[in-house]
Design brief:
CATH architecture: Orthogonal Bundle
Radius of gyration: 14 Å
Strand content: under 5%
Order of helices and strands: HHH
CATH class: Mainly Alpha
Number of strands: 0
Largest sheet: none
Number of domains: 1
Number of helices: 3
Amino acid sequence: MRASEIREMTGEELQTKLTELKEELFNLRFQLAVNQLENSSRIGAVKKDIARVSTILRQRELDGTEA
């Protein structure tokens, strides 16, 4: 997911996306623990997406726009 795509989302969509990403990360970590994870690089990608969404939300919060 690109930062430009994230910036186009509304605040509510960003909150929903953040929740979905955190759930996905939980599931990936669980799969890793029980040795069922096929693509371990997905964990890093999801973490980066979480960071991107969190950063955009924080920027909007500081700007006072649509958080």
